[in-house]
């Protein structure tokens, strides 16, 4: 029998609503994963580094320029009587942001290419500007559906969008058109997403398209979070920019492979956090805010049982993982990769979602400000004296500081007038302990396996299937060890997985 009490039915049903999004992202995760793996084999190291530099610029603008307006839909739509104004003004705002983004790419790419010592970036200035602008304009597509509780429709959109995106990025390179063909294809894809946003998002919503009063309220709510993103995204990407400016594109390709993350965090964390935000809004509206801490603990506990073993396996099987997915030429990226997997373990607690749902966006801004202040000196010292390893360690230390800053504000966000919470009240200690113990034990088994079979693995023939064999063996051993230890602690792993399946609203 599990040591933790059973969650209330309403809490279980709310978490189950994330099921369609989880399943959709599980399917598209394979497509997303295929992109860098295919490109690593068809592009040279220099072209691969250029690909990552192009999308580093685009994604930085993609997450900074929305200024929190799109994310504010999670707060306003569950509480709104008429949803059309919030949707309409959000899409108009993002269309304007897309125009700004396209202009910034076109004007600033030349100095950025000089900073990166990569003049080839200028060959892709026009398609990169078009792609970035249209992608920003389509940002509200999935969020507009999820924030209205239409998780099944959102899941369908995720499936279609990610499938088209993967095809646009991979197929042109396989046909021999290299990066130029890929950039043209993704620009067309972004245009289709932009059109779909206007067709899908407003369907069924009532009210005027724009309301000046509601827009001011929305901007006032979004401003702290938007300012936090303006700090957070550059801070999170700062190590990429600093390393790109310090090494050649080929070495930068190794660094990006070392920082590669499987999409498991986005697969589970993002939809769980999104549905949690909607649930907290519903509880507040119904006067049942005392149940909020239970919803947060349940979501965190479920994520712990997935993220902790995943991080432990990637750390233990890093050489097998890099060799199987990218090839032996990328094995120098293993030390960087082992540091970067810390980000998976740090994603257990959906703290930013709680703070946004409860209107504590200033706390998020403070966290990102602290991270930004810490990052600058860490990167200056780290990259200057320790190169690429200094870059990834600086990022990891800043992430730990930022998560700690968020954590101290979560209890106040979940407290009620009748009950004041502390940190020990909001963290699912039992689940964290059992998942951590099981993950460490299973990871130790993978290390023992490698030392016992190192000579045999080194003599395997070339080819993807042979390279994947050590990873598969390590994975099977890890899963058996993790499940066995977890079962010994009183947790039934299949029940944990079943709790994430789609269920009725209840």
Automatic annotation (TrEMBL):
> What would be one Pfam family of this protein?
Polysacc_synt_3
Q: Which residues form the signal peptide?
A: none
Q: How does it sit in the membrane?
A: Multi-pass membrane protein
Alphabetical list of InterPro entries matching this protein: Poly_Biosynth_Transport (IPR050833)
Q: Name the predominant localization.
A: membrane
Localization annotation: Cell membrane
Keyword set, alphabetical order:
Cell membrane, Membrane, Transmembrane, Transmembrane helix
* Cellular component, GO, one term: plasma membrane
Residue ranges crossing the lipid bilayer per the database entry:
21-39, 51-77, 89-108, 128-145, 166-192, 238-255, 303-326, 332-351, 363-386, 465-485
Name under which the protein is recorded: Membrane protein involved in the export of O-antigen and teichoic acid
Species, as recorded: Stigmatella erecta
